[in-house]
Every structure is written in structure tokens, then in C-alpha cells.
Amino acid sequence: MIQAAVMGFGTIGSGVAEVLDINRDGIIQATGQEIGVKYILDLREFPDSPYGDRIIHDIEVILKDPEVQIVVETMGGVHPAFDFTKRCLEAGKHVVSSNKAVVDAKGTELLAIAREHHVNYLFEAAVGGGIPLIRPLTTSLKGETIQEISGILNGTTNYILTKMSREGQSFARALLTAQELGYAEKNPEADVEGHDTGRKIAILTALATGQEVKFEDLHVEGITHITAEDFLYAKKLGFSVKLVGTSHIEKGKACVYVCPVMVDADNPLYGVNDVYNGVVVDGKTVGKIMFYGSGAGKLPTANAVVSDLVDIAGHLTENAAFGWKEGKFPLKSFETEKFRYYIRISGDPTEDIDGVRAAFGSVKVIEVPELTGEFAVLTGEMEEERFQRVSPAVRGLISSIRVR
Ligand code: HSE
Predict the structure, then answer these.
(1) pTM for the complete prediction?
(2) Which domains does the chain have, with CATH numbers?
(3) pLDDT tens digits, one per residue of 86-99
(4) Binding-site residues for L-homoserine
């Protein structure tokens, strides 16, 4: 039996113990042996859990036990998860993580420590929840030239936007429902401000380029300013609004950003609704591939963690080439990206359209019967820099959303 320890017995950590039980036979068939949970490190006691007898409160127990070969980190937050992970790797134990905050902030350092100690640091569950995404990207697509990754990477915001689209709800109302259902945290900032998506697209870009990409260097916008009115115009256009993380990689540089975008029905992300995630990877020779599935949730995410455990069980004595090197991948300014723009304007199109055309050139006018005293336009394609420069001069401009 391969003995593992789990650090953090919350939703995902307890899910890992469950998936190891549910899939016991399949795991034995795949690896030749059972993967058991010897210890569970948590501050709390779990007297009613079937795994309650394995709870410990001291990391030293795991570090000092030579039987524990793999440690699962499902603690969340950077500290003390980073410190514990580092110590486990230095003690010669493989670590599997679902913790994107640690992977984004400390991934470069932990991958280097893993290499140095001939163990593995894997984190399939950190991006896209249960969707097999990191492994296909780093194995099946190894050597392929990745030109673009664009994805709906956050289930909570996708749920909110779907609710707004289908039921005409305001952002605040849809957020409340998401909180009531347990999708959104009490403090929803990381999700609704795009930070969670930003960390995930940073990790995917680092894996695709083989060099470091940090969340703090990206252009990140959330969905708090999206309104029910925007969805009325979007429907008239046949569009939907999605929070998308994009990484556009060209000539040795990447433009990596997160922002809400309007997508048309031909875009594969258009049909990704509710808490689902969808990621489109565009490779130079393979073309566009789409990954779709549960981006969050106990058992799907735990399944991704267990897939890493099974992977490591196949090479317990070596570090398999994975991850990225030290040194930042060169990034291109967000202002160089080209979009069309949906712009909502207060006024009357017959009186105000000349000013709009003077700024943006030819535009399509959109009016919806439910909204009076305002209209919207759809511009042609232009660089973000031009849009930023000319839009302040447009009279009555209420808001805008980029269109892809
Ligand atoms: N808060 C995240 C989401 C959890 O809603 O997608 C999964 O990373």
C-alpha cells in the first residue's frame, strides 16, 4: 500500500478520502496497489467522520513518518500551506495540491525544491476543478506551440452571469443566490473581482510557456459592473457575457488578462453555463481543443487530486519533468490587444450617433424596447489603447464590454 497524508480536511480534503474509497478497485488496477490515507492534518477534530481516527494536529508526525510517501495539500491560503508543502518536499515526500494561491505565489520555488529532492509537486485540481486540463496540456500537448488559451475558469462567476442572463437578475441578486447555494464565499472578492480566474490563467500560461507568469502582473477585471441592462443588449445581439481568462501567446510574448467579454453563439464558450468551466486551447498544429466540465465541487475536484496521486504512484522514485523554470515569461501590454466594443450610451441615437462615429468610426446601433433614453453601439475592431484614449470624449457613455 502507498501511504498518503492529507493536510486540510475541508471540502476537498474529505473528498479525496472519499474518492480513494469509491475508486479503490480502479486505483489498484491502475497502480498495482492501494493508496491509503494514514494521517489527516487539521486543527479540528472530526469525531463523526469515518476518518476521524486519523486526525493529527502536528505536521511533524507526517514529516517524521517514512511510510508516508505522498502528501495532499488541500488547506487553502498561502500560509501555512506553503511552509508545510516546502517541508514535505524537503523531507522527500511528493506533494499534490489543489491550492492555486500557493501554486501561483510559490509554485516556481516549490517546483525547484521538488526537482532538487527527486520528488513531484503536482496540482491538477488547482485549475478547472475536476476537468483534466493540466495533464493534457503538459503531456498530450507537450511540444505543441500553444497560441492561445481562453477559458471560463471560475464556476461562481459563471453561475452569477448565467443567472443574470436567464432570469434578468441584477448582479447583487444573483450573487446573493450564489452565496445562498454555497457557491460564492461570504466575502466573494476573489471570485467576482476576477482574482481566482487570474491565478488560474497565470498557472496555465506558465505551464504552456515553461516559464513563470504571475497573477500580479496581469490585467484583471471582474464582473461587479455588469448589469441586467447589458444582458438585454447582449440578447438583442445574440451574444452572452462571460468572465474569460485569456492568454494570447505570440512571438515569445504573452498577453494575459481577465475581463468580462461578450461572446457570440459560434464561440465554444457561449454554451458554458452555470457552475461549469470551459477552456479552449488553440495549438498551432492541433487547432482548437475544448475542455469542459465541473470547475468546482467536492468530488470532481477531489478526483483531480486523486489523478495526481495515481500519476505519482507510477514514478515514486523520480521527478517527472513538469512545471516551469525560474524567470518570468515576457508579457505584452493588455493595451495592444484588439477587440470590438459594446458601448452603452445615455441619449438618443438620432442626436448622439455622430459623436460616437467621430470617436469610433462605423458602428452598429442597438436599441431595446425595455430601455428608453439610452442606446448601445457595437464598434469595429480596434486596439484597447485606442479605445481607452478616445472613449472618455464620448458624451453619455455609461459602460462598455469587450466583444470577441
Ligand atoms: N471559487 C472557485 C470557483 C472554486 O468558483 O470556481 C474553484 O477553484
Answers:
(1) 0.97
(2) 2-130+299-326 (3.40.50.720), 140-294 (3.30.360.10), 335-403 (3.30.70.120)
(3) 999 999 999 999 99
(4) 185
